[in-house]
What we know:
two-stranded antiparallel ribbon, 3 helices
Amino acid sequence: MTRVYLPTTLDRLRDAWSAGAVPVPDADAVVVAEGEDEESEYAALMTAADVSAELLAGPGRRVVVVAEVADPTAGHPVPLKRVLAVHADAADRPADADPDDDLAWYATQEVPDLLG
């Protein structure tokens, strides 16, 4: 299994959670850490957060879904049972916010509260 970081938005995550799977619209949007060390995983998370910010096209919350998949290049929807956690900004942020701001961590059972 490979750990992937999937950039998204709250609206897209809400739709995905209702559908039971997180879509992977573009294989190029899937971020994979270069290694299994903490620094590589953090770099992958922040790269996915940058892509999430681009998806927002304005103020909002960056969202990154962390999941484990068999083939990160397949482009298939990721079933919720493969989701390990979700990272998101704690609040809406202006478009000119610092791109290096950390994201909050949400366990899968906390995602409905995040989406609420």
